[in-house]
Amino acid sequence: GLGVTRGRFVKFVSTAGDYSGNPLPKAPAYSASLALEWSPLGNLLIRPEVQRTGSTPAQADNKPGHQIPAYTLLNLSLRWQQGGVGLFFNGSNLTDRNYRQDANTPGLGGSDVAALGYGRSLMGGLEFQFK
């Protein structure tokens, strides 16, 4: 999958400045996902995935301090199904990469605050299907 964004302010003048022509905040220029579904055995499914999100400004002023850098995440899903019983495992951000999702909320002292994205997440389970 691939997404491309070319959003810009046509005219945006505020008391803080003229932001006309600046890119839209929190709208990365691109996002991409590449996944592979592989079934080496009839009842086992392996699905690795790489997600890439491009850099984006966090505020309309486009100041470098408010820039959210590009980041890449690695995810993995495993599923084994035998009749009405299934086992699954999902892992997100397997490399436990630190990445920013936001960088524009002013702190109480006037300093910037960055909101980090989710760290590594692992989940697994057992499913039963009844007919």
Write the topology of this structure:
Elements: E1 2-4, E2 13-14, E3 17-18, E4 30-35, E5 38-41, E6 44-53, E7 56-57, E8 67-68, E9 71-82, E10 85-92, E11 100-106, E12 112-116, E13 121-128
Antiparallel strand pairs: 1-4, 2-3, 4-6, 5-6, 6-9, 7-8, 9-10, 10-13, 11-12
Oligomer: single chain
Order of helices and strands: EEEEEEEEEEEEE
Strand content: over 45%
Distance between the termini: 35 Å
Helix and strand composition category: mainly beta
Average pLDDT confidence is: 90
Helicity range: under 10%
Low-confidence stretches: none
Overall 3D form = elongated
Radius of gyration: 20 Å
Question: How would a crystallographer describe the biggest sheet?
Answer: 7 strands, antiparallel
Give me the number of helical elements. Answer: 0
Got a strand count?
13
Please give a structural write-up.
With 131 residues, this protein is mostly beta strands. The chain is 0% helix and 54% strand. The protein contains no helices and 13 strands. It has strands spanning 2-4, 13-14, 17-18, 30-35, 38-41, 44-53, 56-57, 67-68, 71-82, 85-92, 100-106, 112-116, 121-128. The strands form four sheets. Strands 1, 4, 5, 6, 9, 10 and 13 form a seven-stranded antiparallel sheet that branches. It has a two-stranded antiparallel ribbon with strand order 2-3. Strands 7-8 form a two-stranded antiparallel sheet. It is elongated. The mean pLDDT is 90.
